[in-house]
Amino acid sequence: MIELGWTYFFQIVNLLILYLLMKRYLFKPVMGFIEKRREHTEGLLKDADESFSRAKALQADAEQDLNEARRQAQAALEQAIEHGKTIAKELTDQARQEEKNRLERAQKEIEEAKVRAIDEMREEVANLSVQIAGKIVEQKLDEDAHMHLIDEALQRMDDAHVN
């Protein structure tokens, strides 16, 4: 059997005193250190969560800004394309108008050259007619008769040309 003596009693008292001393000088500081470390870790986790939330919000803002920049760039590109098309159309229209003007000038020049050639031919024919008529008649025509023969020859040429 177990004998209960004073040594048992002293061992229990020593164990209680040791427990109280350890509780006061070892367990409380260790528990305080553990509690501070837990609070510090929770604070760090809370800060990390807040930082993560802010980073998510900043990322969303950056994505929104990026999308807006892309939209603006697309709009600017479309505007530049439209402006280029407008300029190309204006240049094409201008070139067509210049070509039309050149064609009209060329036609006018051709018509004027044709009229000059006809006038020169009339004058030449009139001069030849007068010379032939002068040789046939063998007389020298005076100025009025000469002009009259030229007018008649021109009239006949006009009638022959018109018909």
Low confidence ranges: none
**Helical residue percent?**
over 70%
The string of secondary-structure elements, in order, is HH
Cα separation of the termini: 165 Å
Mean pLDDT: 86
Provide the structure class. Answer: mainly alpha
Report the β-strand fraction as a percent range.
under 5%
Q: What radius of gyration results from the CA coordinates?
A: 61 Å
Short description:
This protein has helices at residues 6-137, 143-162. By secondary structure, it is an all-alpha fold.
Overview of the structural elements:
The chain is an all-alpha fold and 163 residues long. Helices cover 93% and strands 0% of the residues. The termini are far apart. The chain has one domain. Helix 1 packs across helix 2 (143-162). It contains two helices and no strands.
How are the elements arranged and paired?
Elements: H1 6-137, H2 143-162
